[in-house]
Amino acid sequence: MPLSQKILTRLIDIVSWPLWLITWLKRHRTIRTILIAAIVASWSIIHFFGSEAFLAGLMLVGRLAFVVMFIVIQFVAMFAFLGSSKSIETVPGDKGQKSFEKDYFGNDNEVELVLHWTKLLTVERSKLEDMGAKAISGILMTGPPGVGKTLLARCLAHASNAAFFSLSATDLVSMFMGMGAVKVMRLGSKARAKAKEYGSSIVFIDDIVAIGASRGGVVGEWRFGGAIEATINKVMMGGMAGGGAGMGVLSRLLTVMDGVTEVSKRDEIQNKMRTWFGLPTIEQGVVLFVGATNRPDVLDSALVRPGRFDRRIAIGLPDRHTRLALFDGYLNKVKHALMNIEELVADTEGVSHAFIASAIEKDAARLAIFDSRKEITQRDIERAIEENTVGMANPIKDMDPAQRRQVAIHEAGHALLMKLVRPGKRIAGASIIRRSGGILGYVRDVEKDEIFARPLSAYTADIMVSLAGHEAVRLVLGEEWTGATSDFRNVQSRLWSLAVHGYFADGMIPFDVNNPFEHKEIKESADRFAHKCRLQTQELLKENMVTLNLLTDALLEKSELTSSELEILLAGIEYPKGVEIL
Questions:
Q1: Is 342 marked active-site?
Q2: Which pTM does this prediction carry?
Q3: Each residue of 437-467: pLDDT tens digit?
Q4: Fewer Cβ close by (within 10 Å): the C or N end of the chain?
Q5: What CATH number was assigned to the domain covering residues 320-390?
């Protein structure tokens, strides 16, 4: 911009202040009346009592005004301190910004969808305005914890060249009435200022349910077995914490979201003056609110209506393609040996983005460093996955040999039946080392393929696998031991699933899916079925006793077996042909 235009722009900015003040006084009748009354009173005092009386009165008023201003300044300082919120703020060009190219891996469809919308903030904004259309106001990202919602928002700010504000919704809550609303107002004011400066700004509010929960009592619904039930939440709102930190914050957030597109009166005055002199008008910029939650069903309907958080993106746990991209991306950030990424992808079905990132960048790196190595191996990542899945290893020193053998037999039984009746699963590992979660041993399995629907026979196979540990111990040691409580819970869960799908009693579907075994016929049929599963499990264990003993001895020798070691031990055995799983 030429120097003359800069000077003219500065003069317009200065002149706009008194013009704005005059306009403001016109719109505030009470203050205008007080000022007129003060002027009339001052003239009357000077006219009837002289200028000395006026100066004396003015000094008295000045002292009173000083005391009042001192008190006001204290309150303003206190409100400024209490109204501040901890947030991450970045602007285009800052170091450390996250980008889709270097930091975000997978979820290609979700990323493409988000970029379509955000391009309307910058690149395609002029086309949108030419059409007379408007940009979206907000995006709500939903999904379980750890799937990369926050990282997606940060990369979004970089891709759209926008200023970025990131904070947790709990940072907007205060124990003092009204302070939460003040925080929201300050956040909105900063976002609008940055939008004017950089063209757009993004406000990311994590865990938005902390301030956006339903105000009507009904916080959502849950679906199970085709039934839909509303869950009623009777919120006890009281005192400063309830009224000030709950509804007040949400109401103010709704007002701020509705008001970010409004042009201030002073900007209107400046734009008129700029138009007279042929200068470009002030662009307000666009403010995009992005919220994240794993409980979208409890959000207030006013928050998610069109015009506010009017676009929703569901980010789920990574599928096989995304996990492959995650391993490839994060491994490129660290020094590592040759990896079989396909095996790692197969071993992490059902985990989150954060799980994979932490396993590679933190846990595997720790294991490599304390093993005096300068690069990460595949075994480091496998151990990191085990630690994050089943807990840190916490071996029992001098464990009684008989008890250790019982644990080995138990886990060997699980692994053997899994190989026989669940060929669609991959046994990722087995261990008889106690973990921090309290388990004495485990067999970890993962699906070979992505599962979206299952045949009911898979539940039957799961029941047999769960029973196998207990039955193997009884078969080998000749008596029953403790340690199968969680297995029996799994059996009950699978029987319940079969019952609600009409598997028992000639396809009878129970009216009450919460307690299907209240019906006598279904309960008796399920009991008979469970007994048949138990007998069939015993037969399979007896027929493969040699393999069961091999697995037991290997676990006693090594304490842990990898997937490749288990494949060798279990090679050659299969479910008897011609015999159907119940």
A1: no
A2: 0.73
A3: 778 899 988 887 777 788 888 899 999 999 9
A4: N
A5: 1.10.8.60
